[in-house]
Amino acid sequence: MPPRADDSRSTEGGRRAELLDALVDAFAAGGIGDRSLRDIAAAIGTSHRMLLHYFGSRDEMLLAIVEEVERRQTAHLGELPLDPAEAMAEMWANLRRPELRPFERLFFECYARGAQGEEPFTRLLPAAVDGWLAAVDEHAGGAVDPALARLGLAVTRGLLLDLVATGDEQGVDAAAACFVELLRKA
Questions:
Q1: With contact defined as beta carbons under 8 Å apart, do 50 and 41 qualify?
Q2: Long-range contacts made by residues 91-95, C-beta under 8 angstroms, separation at least 24?
Q3: From CA 147, how far away is CA 74, in angstroms rounded?
Q4: Cα 53 to Cα 50: distance, rounded to the nearest angstrom
Q5: Cα 65 to Cα 59: distance, rounded to the nearest angstrom
Q6: 74-129 confidence digits (pLDDT tens)
Q7: Between 86 and which of 41, 81, 103, 124 could a Cys-Cys bridge form, CB atoms 3.0 to 4.6 Å apart?
Q8: DSSP character at residue 36
Q9: Cα-Cα-Cα-Cα dihedral sign, residues 19, 24, 28, 32
């Protein structure tokens, strides 16, 4: 997992960042699921009141987890090669890791709820696409065709959805490798 949240601008922001890190860790360990806020709070050593204070609601807390994981993953772009095929291969190797599956499931759940117009999940749209496209553009210094960047994001998300839905690692990895080869030939 990429580096933890860092928000030391204030004690308030720092405490929220600490709680968010603990929530991400708890989610990674399968510790949230459909558990109550009280159970989640106890698992990370705080109270449900503190979770409500810093996140507002259970849905806002879930969104904060998704947004933090997305932030960590886009930060990983700076470590990728500039060649689109090599970048895709490395990014896929990172994103397909089994320990990320709970986060990917949560992402797709929140994304679908946003696509249906459900608040507060609409906040993910269009940021979940635009944020990645902007990060790719920044990393590549504008050298990547925006349509190719969008296609890469769409293929990656489609493969991740396939992976979390079917668990067919071999088939999904073969499809990712095929896409990398198409990029090499382009």
A1: yes
A2: 91/156, 92/156, 92/159, 92/173, 92/176, 92/180, 95/156, 95/160
A3: 18
A4: 5
A5: 10
A6: 999 999 999 999 999 999 999 999 999 999 999 999 999 999 999 999 999 999 99
A7: 81
A8: -
A9: positive
